[in-house]
């Protein structure tokens, strides 16, 4: 594809949450012939007005090119990327219905608008969209491909990475009273540090990079997973329960997954009911933990499933 630019914020946005976006961009570069990476420059104060009238330096640079970029969250204000030659994929969408008018205006000119959540896609379709929207599901970068002959050295019963579900943590606390467990959890983040410790007080390390993250996750027999709008999270997500990349990452790391999630179009799309042990109360949690700690993960099943969800597969949508 001639003159196809993937616009990245990697030159100035260094928070770990963006690292996965950059991995997706790198995979798209590999799988879209002729695609090139454009490192977007950070706009300084005072550029807002220039953006509104369409004279941003970035827009001038990409005026005659086809462009694609990820928005980590849905916008409700116009910006310089709202241009007819742009394709945009929104990763997180937590907007309320009354914000839809501003949302559609913010993306009114883009050539193609994608949302990563099937739940959000159906929500938009049901609420009289002002323009066509397509579904581009979240993916696992091909660099983390799971082979059927993969072997994992499991050092911990459980690793708690990132934000955790409050109900699952409550069940874990009760379970640990009567079962010998060695698990890893993250202490409070400070100054960009992500320190992890075992429940016995051993310091595991400061997990910052994606490589650190996967290395730790691969050492875990069990992983917890919940959609972000569960058990109090609905306040942050306005009730949306999108399946997040961590689910795919836990599968590729060979973990048995214990889950809590809402039934919706996205959890159906990703087959959470088939790929995880869903718990609804403490008794079901106990059974799930007992089995997950004693049975090895079904790597063949995981590998076959993940073959549908690598970034290279979704790259075909852009081509």
What does this structure look like?
- The strands form two sheets. The chain has a seven-stranded mixed β-sheet, sandwiched between helices. A six-stranded parallel β-sheet has the order 2-1-3-4-5-6.
- It is built from 14 helices and 13 strands.
- The chain is an alpha/beta fold and 319 residues long.
- The chain is globular.
- The longest helix has 13 residues, at 19-31.
- The protein has two domains: 4-136, Rossmann fold (3-Layer(aba) Sandwich); 143-306, Rossmann fold (3-Layer(aba) Sandwich), CATH 3.40.50.
Question: Notable features of this structure?
Answer:
319 residues, Rossmann fold, alpha/beta, 2 domains, 34% helix, six-stranded parallel β-sheet, seven-stranded mixed β-sheet, 14 helices, single chain
What is the annotated CATH architecture of the largest domain? Answer: 3-Layer(aba) Sandwich
Oligomeric form: single chain
Strand order of the largest sheet: 10-9-8-7-11-12-13
Rounded to an integer, what's the Rg over CA atoms?
21 Å
Distance between the termini: 8 Å
* Largest sheet geometry: 7 strands, mixed
Morphology: globular
The number of helical segments is: 14
CATH class of the largest domain: Alpha Beta
Uncertain residue ranges: 44-62
Total discrete domains: 2
Which class best fits the helix and strand makeup?
A: alpha/beta
Mean pLDDT: 89
CATH fold name of the largest domain? Rossmann fold
Number of strands: 13
Q: Spell the H/E element sequence.
A: EHEHHEEHEHEEHEEEHEHHEHHEHHH
């Amino acid at each position: 594809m001639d003159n196809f630019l993937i616009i990245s914020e990697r030159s100035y946005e260094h928070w770990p949450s963006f690292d996965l976006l950059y991995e997706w961009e790198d995979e798209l570069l590999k799988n879209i012939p002729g695609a090139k990476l454009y490192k977007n420059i950070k706009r300084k104060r005072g550029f807002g007005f220039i953006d509104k009238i369409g004279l941003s330096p970035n827009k001038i640079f990409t005026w005659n090119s086809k462009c694609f970029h990820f928005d980590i969250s849905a916008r409700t204000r116009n910006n310089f990327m709202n241009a007819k030659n742009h394709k945009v994929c929104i990763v997180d969408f937590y907007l309320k219905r009354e914000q839809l008018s501003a949302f559609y205006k913010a993306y009114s000119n883009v050539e193609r608008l994608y949302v990563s959540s099937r739940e959000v896609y159906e929500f938009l379709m049901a609420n009289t969209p002002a323009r066509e929207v397509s579904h581009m599901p979240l993916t696992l970068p091909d660099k983390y491909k799971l082979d059927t002959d993969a072997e994992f050295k499991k050092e911990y019963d459980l690793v708690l990475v990132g934000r955790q579900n409050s109900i699952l943590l409550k069940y874990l606390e009760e379970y640990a009273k009567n079962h010998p467990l060695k698990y890893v959890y993250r202490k409070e983040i400070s100054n960009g540090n992500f320190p992890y410790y075992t429940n016995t007080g051993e310091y595991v390390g400061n997990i910052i990079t994606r490589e650190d993250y996967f290395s730790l996750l691969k050492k875990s027999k069990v992983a917890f997973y919940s959609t972000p709008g569960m058990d109090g999270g609905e306040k942050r997500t306005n009730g949306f329960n999108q399946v997040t990349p961590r689910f795919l990452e836990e599968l590729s790391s060979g973990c048995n997954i214990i889950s809590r999630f809402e039934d919706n179009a996205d959890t159906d799309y990703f087959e959470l009911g088939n790929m995880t042990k869903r718990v609804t109360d403490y008794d079901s949690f106990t059974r799930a933990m007992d089995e997950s700690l004693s049975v090895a993960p079904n790597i063949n099943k995981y590998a076959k499933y993940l073959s549908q969800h690598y970034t290279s597969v979704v790259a075909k949508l852009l081509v």
